[in-house]
Amino acid sequence: MSSDKPQKPETIAAQGLGWIDPETHAVAPVVHASSTYLRDADNRYRSGRMYARADNPAYDQPEAVLAALEKGEDAMLFASGMAAAPAVFLALASGDHVVAPKVMYWAFRHWLADFAKVWGLAVDFVDMTDLAALKLAMRPDRTRLVWIETPANPLWEIADIAAAAEIAHAAGARLAVDSTVATPVFTRPVELGADLVMHSATKYLNGHSDLVAGALVTRVKDEHWERIAAIRTRIGGVLGSFEAWLLLRGMRTLFPRVRTAAANADTLAHKLAANPHVSCVLYPGLPEFPGHAVATRKMTGGCGGMISIRVKGGEQSAVATAAQVEIWKRATSLGGVESLIEHRASVEGADTPCPPDLLRLSVGIEDAGDLLADLERALAIAHG
Q1: Of the candidates 251, 279, 299, which is a domain's last residue?
Q2: 178 and 75 assigned to the same domain
Q3: Tens digit of each residue's pLDDT (9 = 90 or more) over 1-51
């Protein structure tokens, strides 16, 4: 991309930065399946490639596209979000202090709590919607990382990225943001002051429920970033070549997919808020949602495709509602083209922040009227 002809993010994604295969001039990228590369006669690697775990050409284009979309200096692909996110913490030193949200992806919260005990990290879990609590949790000269997730799964709490960055930087810490739900379509954390951005690329970046992947983006390539790169190579949490190809394919339709899902979610949230069988709708796009003001300031053009609803009648009614849907699919995950519904407390276990009457909805790109009718019918059946 020429520096004197800046392109909009929609164009960057759709054209994959305009890269064309130099050998065949193919518009679609080739799949580099080789695990190893030929040495020169003098035993050197002048091609720049040695072994796919350390340097896979299949990563070049999707990493460049993601870095461009997030306005970061570099990006790295991983085998999953649960390989990408821990790499940020593995690059810290024993004895460092980190701050993380009380509401966040449950599997990573459990990993972090367990890892901290083994690695000797000090961790404080705080309410990231409370900036005073975040500031109070900071330990100058010891806090090295603040991790936030916004919107935060599964209650969709909104953190103020710019304010959190100021607090983190004032204490000498980095700010990392799990932006899986917001995506670069609605939020670019680097522009708001974040140092690192994480995506479970399985979700919206890919968007087709056919691969597992993770990604990190950095504002600058510093020593911490180099340690993360070394961890990826040494531990081996790398993505397969075909999966990298699938991810790039998915990112090319990122903007129309995510905008359609968000528009559907907004429609459903407003309609469900008036449903007699729903006690509460958790969606940042609703004016009554606690994080609405921050979301409308920091998220450009939409509030994402995720909704949670609390069903009147408690857990039994919530589970019964999920059992009656036909278009919605009862499945774990989010961000695909198809709409998913899940009784989240059953998945997360006893220490979940989810109320037992909560259903998590990943809104897809189907017709919004069809989705609403299916869910309203299921709610009515569940309530007799």
Answers
A1: 251
A2: yes
A3: 445 677 999 999 999 999 998 888 999 888 989 999 888 888 888 777 888
Give the domain range for residue 361.
254-382
CATH classification at residue 141: 3.40.640.10
Q: What is the pTM of this model?
A: 0.95
**Of the candidates 158, 207, 190, 174, the residue with the CA atom closest to the CA atom of residue 74:** 190
Which residues lie across from 36 on neighbouring strands?
Answer: 51
Order of strands, sheet of 278-282, starting from the edge strand that comes earlier in the sequence:
278-282, 306-311, 358-362, 340-343, 329-330
Quick check: helix, strand or coil at residue 70? helix
Residues 253, 259 contacting (CB under 8 angstroms): no
Q: Which residues form the catalytic set?
A: 53, 105, 178, 203
**In this structure, are 56 and 106 located in the same domain?**
yes
The span from the CA of 69 to the CA of 255, in Å, is 11
Q: Which candidate, 177, 241, 218, 211, places its Cα nearest to that of 66?
A: 218
**Structural domain count of the chain:** 2
